[in-house]
Amino acid sequence: MLNWLRCERGQELLEYALFLPVLLALILGIVQLALVILSYNTIGDAARQGARFGVISDNADYPDRIKAVVYQVTDAAGMNRADLTFVLPFKQADNQTIRVDVTYNMLLIVPISVVPISSSGRIPLRAVSTKLLEVR
User: Fold this and answer.
1) Which domain holds residue 119?
2) pTM check: above 0.85
3) Which pLDDT tens digit goes with each residue over 117-131?
């Protein structure tokens, strides 16, 4: 009877079962953070590319062309256009700079309670790029 009480069979399985959810949450959190950083870098690059395209070749007066460049970058990254909010590029009041503003509402895989998330489980990522217009 005493040997039966000291039996440790199944202890490893129990420890593994208790540790597995914590380990999975940690791994999914790291993957989610990597996806957020990737998406933020992509929209930052898209805003930069759009602003750069706008300052060369007098494209600042054609916001649809700049928007097409931004969409080209985000489409290549696999971002859904429905989740992008694009403020039409405009010349600043000084008429010397152009500003491109891109917002992406990213769907989170793992709900994180420390960031402001809408009821749809999305987090807004915003990138703004301002560049000087080239003078010829």
Assistant:
1) 11-132
2) no
3) 655 778 889 999 988
